[in-house]
Amino acid sequence: MGRKTILIAGGAGYIGSHTVRLLNAEGYKVVVLDNLVYGHREAIVDEGVELVIGAVGDRELLTKLFEEHQFAGVIHFAAYAYVGESVTDPLKYYRNNTAEPLTLLEVMSDFGCKSFVFSSTCATYGEPQKLPLTEDHPQDPVSPYGKSKLMVEWILDDCDTAWGLKSAALRYFNASGCASDGMIGEDHDPETHLIPLVLKAVKGEIPELTVFGTDYPTPDGTCIRDYIHVEDLATAHLAALRHLIEGGDSIQCNLGTGVGISVKEIIDIAEEVTGKKVPLSYGERRAGDPAQLVADPKMAKDVLGWEASRKDARSMIETAWKWMSASHGGRFSE
Ligand code: UDP
After folding, report:
1. What does the alpha-carbon distance between residue 288 and residue 146 come to, in Å, rounded to a whole number?
2. Could you tell me if 158 and 105 are in contact, meaning their C-beta atoms sit under 8 angstroms apart?
3. Residue 1's pLDDT is what?
4. What is the pLDDT of residue 127?
5. What pLDDT sits at residue 76?
6. Which of 32, 66, 123, 145 could form a disulfide with 111 if both were Cys (CB 3.0 to 4.6 A apart)?
7. CB under 8 Å to 233, separation ≥6 — which residues?
8. Paired strand residues for 253
9. Which residues pair with 174 in a beta bridge?
10. Ligand 1 nearest-atom number relative to CA 224
11. Could you give all domains of the chain from N- to C-terminal order, each with its CATH number?
12. Which of 211, 225, 267, 268 to mutate to test the pocket of ligand 1 (most atoms within 8 A of CB)?
């Protein structure tokens, strides 16, 4: 049998580009569809990966792509992911994250392509009622971002019933770190995530890191999150894709380490890794931030045979620092 061809929507983004490299290394033929609004052309580093610039809502383009290639499956990363912006501009999120994928799913249905890996999020759970979060925890998202993703989970479920679409909705916890070989990494503009901001503060690119809240009911008063290395996320997508292509059932599962790490602990590790002090200020809690979000990662292990290979945040911070302290300063040049 020849190489399987996979369509990766949003493959020029942060998590997508790391997954593209893994699939290419594993012998898949990869076609990336990305509108480059937040993705970077330069994040596609491998020869042989085809980059098509366009939108997942462009039916004509998708039809052409599905006519040209026999896709064994689709991995869908393309989405907006700024929680705060989703509150002020919800329609942008419902349009891009919820409505646009409908076209992609319709074209998949037209061509009989029935394996779909979807970037969902732990934000679909909302405020945790019990920790660690298991997949059967009630889903009551606080933000339009979380809702925009949860609606797609529902849609995927209905497509399974109606036409046998098999999907994996992967609920990411805190994606972090960069490629171990330093080739690609995280380059968001604007950047809102903790680890890159801590490192930007170390480098003097921002005056200081503001810790959002020190009065949470946690041991050191700062929020606890489950930081999962982006290369571990990539291996999880590969495992999910294989599961579906080999005839596995649809699944909704957490992708996390099961280990909770506080903001203060991240700062301490960053100081060890960089050998420098993180300039700090202490601010108010950020609206919508739960005190703790930690995954129960058991289902991914049981069903996909996947578990995180890196569970403490050190390797996330080390690889992020390698990327950010390189001559390009952690930026793709575009
Ligand atoms: N955080 C912080 N200062 C910042 C950015 C984030 O204290 O400048 C905290 C935030 O309150 C949360 C944790 O760091 O508890 C992780 O936030 P991030 O935005 O990276 O991811 P989220 O958990 O919101 O998806």
Report:
1. 11
2. no
3. 60
4. 95
5. 98
6. 66
7. 15, 18, 19, 170, 172, 175, 255
8. 170
9. 227
10. 15
11. 5-176+227-255 (3.40.50.720)
12. 225
Angle, CA 293 vertex, CA 289 and CA 298 arms, to 5°: 160
DSSP string, 36-47: -SS--GGG--ST
Report residues of the chain scoring pLDDT below 70: 1, 334
| Atom from ligand 1 closest to the CA of residue 266 | 14
Tell me how far the alpha carbon of residue 212 lies from the centroid of ligand 1, in angstroms: 7
Q: Is the CB of 199 under 6 A from ligand 1?
A: no
CA separation for the pair 169, 154 (Å, rounded): 10
Q: Is the CB of 64 under 6 A from ligand 1?
A: no
- Nearest residue by C-alpha to atom 15 in ligand 1: 223
Mutation test of ligand 1: which of 172, 197, 212 has the most ligand atoms closer than 8 Å to its C-beta?
Answer: 212
Residue 272: φ, ψ to 5°: -65, -45
The residues that are catalytic are 145
How much is the pLDDT for 327? 87
